[in-house]
Amino acid sequence: MAATNQERLDLRRHYAGPEFLKEGFRPLFIAAGVWAALAAPLWVAVWTGTISYDGAFAPQVWHVHEMMFGFIAAAVGGFILTAIPNWTGRLPVRGWPLAGLALLWLAGRAAVWFGGAIGAVPAAVIDLLYLTALVACVANEIVAGRNWKNAPVLVAISLLVVANALFHLDAAEIAATGDIALRLSLSVMILLIALIGGRVVPSFTRNWFAKNDGPAIAAPMAVFDRVTIVASVAALAVWVIAAANTASAAVLALAGVLHLIRLARWRGWQTTGEGLVTILHLGYFWVGAGLVLLGLSMLDVAVTRTAALHVLTIGAMGTMILAVMTRAILGHTGRALHMGRGTLAVYALVTAALVLRVANEFAPSADMVWSSALAWSAAFGLFVWIYASMTFRAPPRPGQDG
Prior knowledge:
Elements: H1 5-13, H2 25-47, H3 59-88, H4 96-113, H5 115-118, H6 120-144, H7 151-171, H8 178-211, H9 223-242, H10 246-264, H11 275-297, H12 305-332, H13 341-360, H14 366-392
Helix pairs in contact: 2-3, 2-14, 3-4, 3-6, 3-8, 3-12, 4-6, 6-7, 7-8, 8-9, 8-11, 8-12, 9-10, 10-11, 11-12, 12-13, 12-14, 13-14
């Protein structure tokens, strides 16, 4: 017989394993933060010839791959494994199965870095294990919990496995799939932000407005939201398949405009009293702005493709991931949902990283690239410094200072 909600709650409370393995966000968010802090300056050191790299990929491809399938894949796994119990009513993946997932992710990072020594094919097999195991885990939970409305998330993670495999096929010189792998992985992440961000941004905004006499906002996933999602799927599919052309430029820019209108309906400019809410709106803003700029870059208007891609990666993905990770750790560890000065510095640093990297496209300089990488590294390093200890300790008891 299925357990009742109270029985499930009691089982969660009586978890006796390591606190760090109690929920998916604990090991995987910290892994994402550590790797983000290390990988950016490591890439610039390779790019400038300060250190040598003989891995599975060409150096620039390694940078792209590790941002997508190292940093972002860890953050996505942490979020989804933490959210699934709320979606399905089932117990979270925890303990040694969770440790196994985290170790598979870590093995992938090592395999890709040392791919030149172990070979492209073994590196690919090892690196694909984490996301493949995550797909299996999510599929099992969705099927067992009959939570079919979240099946699109499962499809998205499965497409990330495909994109990762395409990166490795190119690295092994089996097929020239590197460019489509980049476009596919970026597109999947943009759609995940649109889907999940489209739930959490208006939800948290509405909650904050309700406590602070704010205005009513548009309901999540109304008709306009669905039109925006469908238009985004179509636009990104055209870009993945056809790459840069006039049709791609037009549909991407249109999708970006729709996202900006969608965001405006949530009235984020009135949330400045709480940075944990405002930063979600800023992260989502970069989705719409990045898609518009990506479309314009294909028409050689005002902006380069590299600048547009960094608006989507550093801006949308980096900012939104930090926004979600900081809020989730505070909430799930029993702490007040309030932005402290350290967290404000985290948000300011990732924004500075974006500004510096885009500015480099207009005034190229190795110093500018280094400054952007160090700001990014400082943002995630500070995140780990502030939040890692929270993931190792039990939540504060009522009345205890959190």
